[in-house]
Structure formats: C-alpha cells, structure tokens
Fold this sequence. Notes:
By secondary structure, the protein is mainly beta. Helices cover 8% and strands 41% of the residues. The chain has a six-stranded mixed sheet with strand order 19-15-21-26-23-24, with no helix packed on it. It has a six-stranded mixed sheet with strand order 30-29-32-37-34-35, with no helix packed on it. A five-stranded mixed sheet has the order 5-9-14-13-11, with no helix packed on it. The termini are far apart. Residues 65-77 have low confidence and may be disordered. It binds CU-O-CU linkage and copper (II) ion. Residues 183, 185, 218, 220, 346, 516, 518, 562, 564, 566 line the site of CU-O-CU linkage (C2O).
Amino acid sequence: MDTVIRLGLVSNGTTTLPAIDLDKFIILISSEHGVRAREPHGRIILRGQSPSTRPMPPDVLEFSVGAMGGAGTAHHHADVIMPPVPPGLTMLPSEMSVRPDVAPYLPPTDTTIPFARPREILHLVNGDTIRLEAGLVRRTLNGHTYTMYGYNGQYPGPLIEAARGSEVVVRFSDRLPDSSSIHWHGIRLDNAFDGVAAVGREFTYHVRFPDAGIYWYHPHVREDIQQELGLYGNIVVQPEYSPANREAVLMLDDLLVADSSIIPLGKESPTHALMGRFGNLFLVNGEPGYRLSVRRGEVVRFYLTNASNARTLNLSFPGARMKVVATDAGPFEHEAWVESVVIAPAERYVVHVRFDKPGAVALVNNVIALDHLFGRFFPEVDTLGVVSVSPHAVVHDLTKSFAALRRLPPPFAAQAFLSRPPDQTLVLTLETHDLPFVTERLMQLDSIYFAPVEWGGTMPMMNWASTGRQVRWVLKDPATGRENMDIAWHFPRGTPVKIRFVNERRAFHGMQHPIHLHGQRFLILAVNGIPNENLAWKDTVLVPAGGVVDILLDTANPGDWMLHCHIAEHLSTGMMMHFTVN
Ligand code: C2O
Ligand code: CU
C-alpha cells in the first residue's frame, strides 16, 4: 500500500468517515493497543473497498491463462496490421490474439494521387456557388505518407465563412471508390439537402444559414471510414462575440496509425464497434503539432470542433486564462471562466484565451484513463500544439473587455419545462453476440464498475476486434418498445418538445454517447436532474454512461430528420432513428 490514511477511531454504532481523495482504496479496521497508533500493527479486518477495485478479476492470472482457450474463436487474416498497444497498459495474451471478423479496408493507392494542400477559406455571400469534390489524396504525417480522403484536395476541407441568412449552392462530386454525401452538421437547412443518404457521383445542395454559430460538414455514409480518412470541414456563420485580437478555427481529430500504415478500417462493417475508434495521432487542422504565434496580451478566439470518431477531448491551455463563450449554434447566456473544455465528437465550443506571458503555451488534452483489467486510473496528457507568445505587447489591448464576463438574455424561456415530465424518452443501450470469450468476460467485469466517460480507449485490442457483426448499439423507445430505425416520432412544428435520454446503467458495457439531432436546435435543460443554468443552443449533447440528460427541442424546421449517436462506429452499427417535424 502506497498511502495509509488514519480515518479515525471506531466505536460501537455507526462511524462516519471523512471524504477520501483517492481513486482506489480499501478500508481496514485494526485492533491496536492505544488510540494514538499511526500505522496498523494489530489484527486487521477488511471493511470496504472503493468501487474502482471491482473490475479486477478475483484471480487475474488464472483468468488470463484460462481465457486463452477462447482465443480460437477469433478469425485470422494473413498479414494483419494490428493497432499498437498504448504505453502503460497490460494486455492478456488471449486479448492480443483477437481479430476483427471483417476484411481490412484501406484506400487504393498509387503515386499519381496528388498530395493534399492545407485548407483554403471560402468567403460566401448570398447566391454564391461553390464546388466540393471528395477524392483521394496523399498526406505526409510525421514522415509517413498515407493515402486518405479529402475535399478539393485539401485537409481539412475548405473553411466556409458565410453570412447569416444567406443561401448558397454547393456542387458536390464524388471521386471516391465508394459512395458518399455531405451532411451540414447543425445547420437548419431545407430537409431535402440534409445529406443523410448516399448520392450519385454528382449532387447539388442548396444550403441556407439561418443561425450564427460554428458548424461543420462531413459525409453521412460509413462515417467510420470516410470521416477517419479526412472528410470534414468547418463552417463559421457570422457570429457576434465579445472582442478578440484574432480568430483560429481548429478541427481536432485523432487518427489511428501504426507508423507506416493507417490501421485498416472494416470493409463490410466497422471495427472498433464497442468503444469506437480511438486514434493515437492527434491532428489539428489535419496536422500533428499545431503552431500559432501571438503577441503578449493577445486574446485569441478559438473555434474548436471535435471531428474524431470516438474520442471526447478535455482541452486546456495551461498557464493561459480561458473563458467559454459559445457552443454549437449560439452563445452561452453568460461567459464563464473555465480550466478546460470538454468536447465530445461533433460538438463545438468557442473559447477566448488570453496569452499574457511571453513564452510557450501548450494546447493539451488532459484526461484520466482507466485500465479496465486492473481497475487502475492513470493520467493521459497529449500536447496537440504550442502557442508561442512573443515579448512584444499586442497593439490593441483588450485587458478590460477580456476581464468582463458578458451576459445575454436567456435564448429561450425554458424554466417552465424543467419540472414537466418528458414528452419522449429514449434509452441508450447495446446488444452483443458471438464476442470472443475474453472480451465477453472482461466486459462483464467492466460493467460492475465503469467511468461515466471512456476517455482513453483503454481496451485497444478487444475494442479493435469487435465489429458490427457482434455489436449493435441501440436507441430504445420505452413507450413503444421500438428500436433504432423502427422508431418514428412525430412532432408538430413550433411546439417545444422535452426529450429525456437515459444511458442505461445496467448495459453490458455502458459508454457515453454524443447524441445529435439533425435540422433543429435544442437546449440542455438538466443533467442527472440538475438544472442547467447557462443555456445555449446546441445540436449535439454528451450523455455520460449511467447518466440522464433532458433537452428541449425547438421544432422549428419541418421535415424528416435523424437522431443518432455521433461516435462513428456506434452510428454505423445501428444507433440511429428518425423523427418528423410536421
Ligand atoms: Cu454530424 Cu448525422 O451527423
Ligand atoms: Cu454512442
């Protein structure tokens, strides 16, 4: 034991313990000669354990050897490229031998495929027409050249800056080996152009931008492949925020590679179907090692979009002061100082950061990961980029406006809906079958204790080997018993709807789900019954494992729309439904 903490004296009756600031602990009572004993010397009885000790198998060794028998159920492919094991994790031999039961997929490559260029910025006004072409590109990341996908030969796709209220025409052409589409994430456009179904080689989208905010576009066909390979771009619609010296639009992603190759994707069905595909190479605007140079005292407005398949980020600039000002489709009621900002896949946040000391400030993802096998928590800190602050002071000093926290009227009078029962409830859960023995067994242990958010993807081999053939993520409507695409909700236009998401506590392997609703916007009313006191319009919300989230949907935009989990592998394994606004 690393740390022994004296909790107090025990007498007959009930003893209330102080809070214990440890991830993992056991509680012992020892019988001592005197009340002043600092360390236990006498006889000891075990009186309790932290929940985090519970995923540990009663006999790890016996289990790991015994589990090897089950490894034979895995399918073997010749020359499989396996995901690397993250440092600090212990893998069972049986876990190392599992393989996905789908054929590996990587884009066809040859040396005539052009190298991608950094994105360009498209300033659009009403009536403009642009062209977006999805095609193969080559990209060199950390000295390795990979064949990937890109829009207009760029990484990420072009940055679209559009005026609020404008409407533009997008001529899309698909030059990929597979069919695709463009979904305009978060934009309340005409239902016909929502881009959920695969289109032919050419398609013309009419996209209108009614709301200021930060949006993005991506395919809606096998996102687990197409988004991972680089098909995404940002859209900024004429926002009005408090002042900043400069703006930076950052698309954040994590790509899963093993040096010279991208880890292949699943051809018939996604790999990584359990937790989603966590990458090991962080990318900001398509490149590792983001760099920005600013002057001392500069206030930078960062638009942050999480385009990764599965990873929820916890971002900060240690040493610089940060306030959060807006999210998906609008500003927060009040700006707030924050230490870090949590961004689930598909969510966006706008933060203002002031760099007031010369030197280097890192952009880091700082999370606590869980080693599921040993019930051990460990920190993971990844540097996504560095901001260099020069000693020269910024010309236009914003000290005063930055120090103030702007307040706005609430975006909607949501108070009355807080105590109302939900109009619809959706349970988030999963079904599995034919998983390898070792996976089945470890997942069962894991369901005894789980983290509300899986930050690190710390079951890399078992997760990789699970495919859409074994895992089906489920949205269940308890009112009708219907699931996924069999659910069809109907809402009259203009009547706000309260929806409750219940992320099933008892699911076989609970996980957080970033839930996205197309074509509308909503407010987060409450999380686990705690009212949200800082409202903002959103289109994606993270529902933690075991958590309950209430939203209020603004049903303003008629049409037939999708609701789904934005972990690409969960979506591609069924976690979607539709609803109609009449
Ligand atoms: Cu960003 Cu239906 O997706
Ligand atoms: Cu999900």
